[in-house]
Amino acid sequence: MLDPRIAEALVSAVRRAAKSEILPRFRAMGAEDIRAKSGPDDLVTAADLAAEAIITEAVSDILPEARFLGEEASVGNPALLDEPGAPGWCVILDPVDGTWNFASGLSTFGVMLAVSFNGETQFGLLYDPVNDDWMTAHKGEGAWHNRRGGAPQRLQTRAPERLPDMVGYVPLPMMPQQRQSKIAASFPSFRRILSLRCACHEYRTIAAGHAGFALSGTLWPWDHAAGVLLVQEAGGHVAMLDGRSYGPGVRDGTLLAAASREHWDAVHAHFTPLL
């Protein structure tokens, strides 16, 4: 288990980086501060790069024995993607999750940080810089919503179990292109299907009881390690569609996070034939 004092120090480091590097750039960037990586919807901004640099330096002081996997560092060094599955401690960071939203002036973005040990996530942090609040989970210790100056509140998943009453997240453009039409045609089976373009807030809303599930088409560890632990510790069930357990070293397949095992089974039965 990660020492709670180390976890607190990591939370403080993320909050400082957001205050100094992310929020001052929100709705204040020029074209030179934003560029595309793999495509027009895969962006990196000056805020991503600056925040990752600040947090990387802080982690080297707080947990010096840990390896570090930052989303932006991995662009120039893909071998870093193997770090979460290796023995020992690893810190996994998405400095601005929901970069497209951030660059577009939308406030649905966050910072995601996870700490794994021997390939298993031990601590997760999902931070909302705009509201300066954060959700955390320690493995085996539950999930908590923290607000500045307030007492932490324990999180508990809850959602209607019938598909017609269920709200969920499906990133349709990230699903196999040849299957997107069939997947989209099945959306009326649910109360509402959304995509926030921000894994941080999708996982937060499931853990807080406001959504029933999230289906994920890509498995970058910085998008899922912290959120999966949060949902699990709030009472949810998370697994790959083929039944495998998820860990930050898993790189292939489709991930399904749900408010309970019953929710997972129902959504799994609906989407598996389509995928």
Automatic annotation (TrEMBL):
Cofactor(s) needed for function: Mg(2+)
BP terms from Gene Ontology: inositol metabolic process; phosphatidylinositol phosphate biosynthetic process; signal transduction
Entry keyword Magnesium: yes
Entry keyword annotation includes Cell division: no
Q: Which domain of life is it from?
A: Bacteria
Sample GO molecular function, one term: metal ion binding
Query: What are the entry keywords?
Result: Hydrolase, Magnesium, Metal-binding
SUPFAM superfamilies (UniProt xref)? Carbohydrate phosphatase
- Binding-site residues, Mg(2+): 71, 94, 97, 223
Q: Which PANTHER family match?
A: INOSITOL MONOPHOSPHATASE, INOSITOL-1-MONOPHOSPHATASE-RELATED
Family of this protein: Belongs to the inositol monophosphatase superfamily.
Q: What is this protein called?
A: Inositol monophosphatase
Native source organism of the sequence? Pacificitalea manganoxidans
